Amino acid sequence: MGQRLEVDCSTGQTRAVPLTAAEQAAFDAALAAAPGIEAARVAANANAATLSTNVAGALARLRQIQAANPNTVSLPQVAQAVIDLATDMLFIARLLSRQFDGTN
Amino acid sequence: MVGTNGNLQWLYDNRVTKISESVLSVVTASVTLSAIPGTYRHLYFDWYARGDVGATSTGTAGQLSADAGANYDWMQIASGGSGATSPAGVVGDTDFQFGDMTGNTAPASTFSAGHIELLNYAGTTGHKMGTWQTATKTAVAVANLSWYSGSFWWRSTAAVTSIKVFPKSGNFVAGSLFVVYGAN
Known about the structure:
Chain A is 67% helix and 11% strand. Chain A is mostly helical and 104 residues long. The relative contact order of chain A is 0.11.
């Protein structure tokens, strides 16, 4: 059974109080949820780092597409450029909206 | 604004005064500082703590005057040493959060610390609010050095008479320190 500490500021007296059954149940539930919260946080941080890296590459690709002359590329190249553009926009959109549950 | 005995008297009257402190000798789920006198203008709450949860960190939260109702609105900005910032917040929460503190899998002996200011805590006209800063280190890497700042609002016009703080998961470890000051 856990305990909490109560400090009376008017006297300086401290008192350790055992958690009630309800408090203990809430404590245990929070403790059980902690690994999942930690895993989600680690994954989100990793995804945020990946997205930041990807956006740096996206900028280079976007500049290349911006500078390309449409008359000198084939249709498949244009199609691939659109796919790349959509992918790069996803990276940016995820970063801006802080959706770090994935990277694509 | 010079006291009858001059500037020293004025400085004495307006000093920051320690009201109470507690250093934990055993792991503890929460700490409540109660019977806070209403004789100051503002309250400062300083803490230095670490959690025992099996994670690198856990949230730190508080409640005022034993109110566990959904009466808290809070927001925070977490800034990592790598430059990333993460805003977060909740309205109508049952507590206010003031950042994260290190857990059991953070580097050994690494504690987190922070400072909370409760402005006009004894007033009874408007809702109470506070501002805070927290620092924590969850690993020995620049990206894992974090600085949090934020604010919270308590939807009550009642004077603050107690402060309860607790980890969102697990206990505070022994050696954790909590101090409340009054300021005029």
